[in-house]
């Protein structure tokens, strides 16, 4: 149990009062030293009552401080919605139509993107890998910051700046890489959680806080993360290690921790992809997946994390492109009013953003799809096939009466409220945010927490990533806390970068390469063999491996390979499986 100076003071005061009462009572009413048992009991009850009252007061103050902080991080408040309504009331139809669109641009042609923001009054833009100067793994951070500054200032006359967004989940979906700290796959958080839920949640929140702060420092305002998809394991071809876990409740808890961490770093996040992409067997980038589960199954599995997130309060939910016959046969969820109503019925008041509208699952994502999505209940349309075409279609639909003007205004208000909230959060105007210190009373609650995740906000991003990987790495099969290699290893499998990073980590650990035990790196679902087989992303491929030692690493970052070398040298591997791997059930650890 954690202690605090206040609790120690309360206990010392209680002991002092009790000792004083006993000394007085022992003297007796006539000074004879024959104090009665009844007076001792009364003094003890008074002391206990005083301690309980003080503890109750302390706990109430802690709850009040925590609730204020969580409310600030959860999304826009009433003041933001009221201000947004006033702004939208003064907007033209063309401005409102632009406000609900997130565009994209080619390469580093930031000037044309800025011109489009101004001409079409766009709600914002998203940067993909091809927009990152220097490439996703050798980022020119100065050039990137310059691009984002140009975009932010694209239309100085507007009352709210454009959204500058990115997909940054960690692992396979990393748009902004080195020298910005790289993060492991989201499943790494699930591995830490499987071993120790409280520690896993603290690591998840801290990791996302660092990620959010790094992105905000570059100039981003939104990251479309974290995933709330519950993976079904090997049969899930799309989400895989992008999922936090195969356990719905764990995913919900971790998703809330992740989106809170992003907010603490100054970014608006979005839980995704409702109605759940982790249990369908097709990829919505290429076709329309069909979710065959009935509503009872969905509400007890795929929708659990979204319901948890909405109940906790989140600024944004992303709608995926999945057909759910039990909801709306033949219609992608992103175009289905019934699907949007499902999220609203959970209690979500904020923005619902579509997944990219240029994906194959939206039947090409043409101009009419933008109208259909907004009419169905979307507030923000991500990456229409043609931004000018989508803008013109929305204006025409309102003018013709096909799309109610009130629906467009409602969507624009939600988007602007989101922007206003993020601005206040980043500027330290709320009860939480990147420059708002945690109240001392909450810090007291955390003192003495020696779970490997304490005080991570004071670490550098790279140090925090190293701590996370050290808590996530999982020995699925083989010896634990025993040297698995000697002074040299052979490296096979993986990509050229994977092998180079492992060799560099080995050199840092004083281990040479080219001879000795074979360490085979697995990047996908293909099994491998060797003395030690290491799954870098998703661990399911280990089920078919014949190696004597099987390790799940959940990442390809430099910190990932440092963590691997520590385990190979005999250090503990604390993580547990976040998903079943062959005969090994979720939560399993060979240690």
SSE map:
Blueprint: H1 5-27, H2 37-74, H3 78-89, H4 93-99, E1 101-103, H5 110-120, E2 124-127, H6 141-152, E3 163-166, E4 168-170, E5 173-174, H7 187-195, H8 197-218, E6 222-223, H9 248-264, E7 271-274, H10 295-300, H11 304-312, E8 316-319, H12 337-346, E9 351-354, H13 367-376, E10 381-382, H14 387-400, H15 405-427, H16 440-446, H17 461-472, E11 474-477, E12 488-493, H18 496-508, E13 512-522, E14 532-535, E15 549-552, H19 558-568
Parallel strand pairs: 1-2, 1-10, 2-3, 3-6, 7-8, 8-9, 12-13, 13-14, 14-15
Antiparallel strand pairs: 4-5, 11-15
Helix pairs in contact: 1-2, 3-15, 4-14, 4-15, 5-6, 7-8, 7-17, 8-9, 8-17, 9-11, 13-14, 17-19, 18-19
Description:
The structure is a single chain. It is built from 19 helices and 15 strands. With 591 residues, it is an alpha/beta fold. The strands form 4 sheets. The chain has a 5-stranded parallel sheet. A 5-stranded mixed sheet has the order 11-15-14-13-12, covered by helices on one side. Helix 5 runs parallel beside helix 6 and helix 7 crosses helix 17. The longest helix is centred in the N-terminal third of the chain and has 38 residues. It is globular, with a radius of gyration of 27 Å. This is beta-N-acetylhexosaminidase.
The biggest beta sheet, please?
A: 5 strands, parallel
Please give the share of residues in helix: 40-55%
Main sheet: strand order: 6-3-2-1-10
Q: State the end-to-end distance.
A: 26 Å
Structural class: alpha/beta
What oligomeric state do these chains adopt?
single chain
Strand content: 5-15%
Average pLDDT works out at: 89
In terms of per-residue confidence, which ranges show pLDDT below 50 for 5 or more consecutive residues?
1-35
Shape: globular
């Amino acid at each position: 149990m954690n202690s605090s100076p206040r609790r120690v003071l309360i206990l010392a005061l209680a002991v002092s009062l009790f000792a004083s009462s006993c000394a007085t009572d022992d003297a007796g009413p006539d000074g004879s030293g024959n104090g009665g048992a009844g007076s001792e009991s009364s003094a003890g009850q008074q002391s206990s009552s005083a301690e309980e009252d003080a503890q109750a007061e302390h706990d109430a103050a802690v709850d009040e401080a925590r609730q204020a902080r969580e409310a600030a991080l959860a999304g826009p408040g009433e003041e933001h919605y009221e201000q947004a309504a006033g702004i939208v009331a003064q907007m033209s139809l063309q401005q409102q139509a632009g406000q609900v669109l997130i565009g994209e641009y080619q390469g580093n042609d930031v000037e044309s993107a800025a011109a489009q923001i101004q001409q079409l009054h766009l709600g914002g833009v998203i940067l993909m890998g091809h927009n990152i100067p220097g490439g996703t793994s050798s980022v020119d951070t100065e050039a990137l910051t310059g691009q984002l500054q140009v975009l932010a200032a694209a239309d100085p006359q507007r009352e709210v700046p454009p959204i500058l967004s990115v997909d940054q989940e960690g692992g396979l979906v990393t748009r902004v890489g080195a020298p910005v700290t790289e993060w492991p796959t989201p499943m790494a958080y699930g591995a830490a959680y499987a071993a120790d839920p409280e520690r896993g949640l603290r690591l998840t929140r801290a990791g996302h806080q660092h990620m959010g702060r790094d992105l905000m420092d570059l100039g981003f305002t939104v990251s479309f993360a974290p995933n709330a998809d519950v993976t079904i394991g090997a049969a899930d071809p799309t989400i895989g290690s992008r999922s936090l876990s195969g356990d719905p409740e764990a995913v919900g808890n971790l998703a809330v921790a992740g989106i809170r961490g992003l907010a603490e770093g100054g970014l608006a996040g979005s839980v995704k992809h409702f109605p759940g992409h982790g249990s369908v067997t097709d990829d919505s980038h290429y076709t329309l997946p069909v979710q065959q589960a009935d509503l009872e199954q969905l509400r007890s599995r795929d929708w659990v994390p979204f319901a948890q997130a909405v109940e906790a309060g989140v600024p944004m939910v992303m709608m995926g492109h999945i057909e759910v016959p039990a909801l709306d046969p033949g219609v992608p969820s992103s175009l289905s009013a019934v699907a949007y109503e499902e999220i609203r019925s959970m209690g979500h008041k904020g923005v619902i953003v579509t997944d990219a509208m240029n994906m194959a699952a939206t039947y090409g994502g043409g101009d009419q799809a933008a109208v259909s999505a907004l009419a169905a209940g979307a507030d923000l349309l991500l990456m229409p096939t043609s931004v000018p075409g989508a803008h013109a279609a929305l204006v025409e639909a309102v003018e013709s009466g096909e799309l109610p003007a009130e629906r467009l205004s409602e969507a624009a208000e939600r988007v602007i409220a989101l922007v206003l909230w993020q601005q206040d959060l980043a500027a330290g105007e709320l009860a939480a945010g990147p420059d708002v210190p945690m109240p001392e009373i909450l810090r007291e609650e955390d003192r003495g927490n020696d779970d490997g995740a304490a005080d991570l906000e004071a670490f550098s991003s790279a140090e925090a990533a190293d701590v996370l990987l050290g808590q996530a790495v999982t020995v699925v099969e083989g010896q634990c806390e025993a040297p698995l290699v000697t002074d040299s290893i052979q490296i096979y499998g993986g990509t050229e970068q994977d092998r180079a990073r492992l060799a560099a980590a080995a050199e840092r650990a004083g281990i040479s390469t080219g001879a000795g035990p074979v360490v085979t790196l697995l990047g996908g679902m293909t099994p491998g063999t060797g003395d030690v087989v290491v799954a870098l992303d998703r661990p399911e491929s280990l089920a078919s491996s014949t190696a004597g030692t099987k390790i799940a690493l959940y990442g390809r970052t430099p910190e990932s390979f440092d963590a691997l070398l520590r385990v190979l040298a005999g250090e503990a591997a604390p993580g547990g499986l976040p998903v079943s791997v062959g005969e090994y059930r979720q939560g399993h650890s060979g240690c």
